[in-house]
Amino acid sequence: MQPTVRDRALADGLRAAQAAVDEGLLKATKSDVPFITEAARELTRTAGRRLRPLLVLLAARFGDPGAPGVVPAAVVVELTHLATHYHDGVRDEATVRRGAPCPDAHWDNTVAVLIGDFLFARASHILADLGPRAVRLQAEAFRRQVTGQILETTGSREDRDPVEHHLEVLASRTGSLTAVSGRLGALTSGADASAVDALARYGERLGVASHLADELATLTARRPTLPVLLLAGAAERTGRGDLADPGDRAGRGDLADRELYELLTGPADRPGYAEAVARLRTHPVLDLAREETARQADAARVALSTLPDCPARSALESLCETVMRRADTAPPPGPDAPTAPSSCG
């Protein structure tokens, strides 16, 4: 996901900074043990979007983008993202994540977990040079990520709205790192406190919106990802089109939705699975997911409203528009549509 950058000076500056981030990632993933270097660099070659470093670099435009801590901060957030990618691939037993092979598709789970640990260690090493405040911010983001993973694993309480639970999981697992990306970029550039806070709020909302859009986009795949199934299976609509009472949601809702959820969370070769996927793609609750994506993207735009009107702000606003286009153009193909790369978190 790339922003629309119409200002030539900003575009040139971002390209140079992104090249410096790539160089920093290569340096950070180098080890005296060749196998560690090979395994750690696997995702740096295939991960693609580099959204979090980009948020750092754009946030730094509200201070001094050439400040010495900006590029290291961008390297830290990407290393953290890649480390969670290694760990999540093991936890989810996934083979593909956002179009790239999950690490345990190449190596066993033990190696994938240890390489994730190695990347966390390298991120911590770089972070230490950015000062105590940066360390605390990253530690808090990490705490939230782990909390989100636990909440996702344990599921919602019997008295909790499953949709609200899912959104809390996304805010913790995804929003926490995009939030700290905006915050660290502004902080290391010397931006004022109000800009630091605004960019953190923007980052969190954009992260949640982006993840929801990715979940909707997986509806083009033969096997959609589990998170959107949790969202789709967790809410039913009444005859008026409103969400039913939380006590009547999936797992506790009507028989048809419970059966749909059970089919979708079972093996893909299970009888009736293809029909269940087709039903999911036309389920009215997907409108809820698109509405929530729009709400999160709008909140991200509002967070930027206190910042100076400049090319960097326009670029950040364009990311909100990109997210909405991704959510709105996710087509509901039939069950025999070509398989698209699955996103698993």
Automatic annotation (TrEMBL):
Residues 326-345 are annotated as: Disordered. Its cofactor is Mg(2+). GO terms for molecular function: metal ion binding; prenyltransferase activity. Pfam families: polyprenyl_synt. It comes from the Bacteria. The keyword Metal-binding applies. GO terms for biological process: isoprenoid biosynthetic process. Keywords: Magnesium, Metal-binding, Transferase. Belongs to the FPP/GGPP synthase family. This is Geranylgeranyl pyrophosphate synthase.
